[in-house]
Design goal:
Number of helices: 5
Helix content: 25-40%
Order of helices and strands: EHEEHEHEHEHE
Largest sheet: 7 strands, parallel
Radius of gyration: 17 Å
Shape: globular
CATH superfamily: NAD(P)-binding Rossmann-like Domain
Distance between the termini: 42 Å
CATH architecture: 3-Layer(aba) Sandwich
Strand content: 15-25%
């Protein structure tokens, strides 16, 4: 097969929908992973739905094995799975909230990375792009658990970049500001300075190699801010 294969986690979410469509438009074969996803979510002959979660290494390995068995490779991993919770100060944050943020924002990445990297190392090529958050480097009050989990994700991806540069694998993390997605929109919210998901999607396509497969070759270990007008 000559078509590049992209595995997109959280493919039918607010950002994932834009990323999946952008990769399809760029000529990728896209496997969209999410707990509840179906082929009809994206009307495209090169889209495959993979209903799965990443709550364990076993689940991640099963998902990756399914993709490899069907397509023979994974050229790109776009990891978009994550969650957000705000609340009290760090001093008043309960264990359940703290652990849930790490489960969604760090553990899922850890599982899928452990599953995907061996296949990419075997192929001696691969692109890994993860979605962090501006809060990872610019934390605010009442989001301590979220900020800490996203900061840990940044460290994890940068470590992956260093450990796998010998195998031709790039790994980068994007830090968006507040994105203009349905989940983020609240009554009377001022969205004028929010980041457009399409902008993040186009950056992911570029880091993935673009339509010609030759963009982003020399970018790895990067932590890329996308703050929009909210800079």
């Amino acid at each position: 097969m000559t078509a590049r294969v992209a595995l997109v986690t959280g493919a039918n979410g607010g950002l994932g929908t834009h990323v999946t469509k952008a990769l399809l438009d760029a000529g990728f074969t896209v496997v969209g992973l999410a707990p509840k996803i179906q082929a009809s979510d994206f009307d495209h002959p090169h889209f495959t739905a993979l209903p799965a979660s990443l709550d364990s290494l076993e689940a991640a390995n099963k998902a990756v094995d399914t993709v490899i068995a069907h397509f023979g490779k994974i050229d790109v991993l776009a990891h978009l799975v994550g969650g957000f919770a705000s609340g009290p100060s760090v001093a008043d944050t309960d264990d359940a909230t703290f652990q849930s943020m790490f489960a969604m924002n760090l553990n899922t990445a850890f599982h899928i990375l452990r599953a995907v990297i061996p296949a990419m190392r075997k192929a001696q090529t691969g692109r890994i792009i993860a979605i962090g958050s501006r809060a990872a480097e610019d934390p605010g009050a009442s989001v301590g658990a979220y900020s800490a989990s996203k900061a840990a994700l940044v460290s994890l991806i940068r470590t992956v970049a260093v450990e796998n540069k010998d195998a031709g694998i790039t790994a980068n993390v994007i830090l968006p500001g507040t994105m203009d997605t349905p989940a983020n929109r609240m009554p009377a919210a001022d969205t004028s300075q929010w980041v457009q998901p399409a902008s993040v999607a186009s950056l992911i396509v570029w880091l993935a190699g673009g339509a010609g497969g030759d963009t982003g070759n020399d970018v790895t270990g990067a932590v890329i801010p996308v703050y929009g007008r909210g800079l």
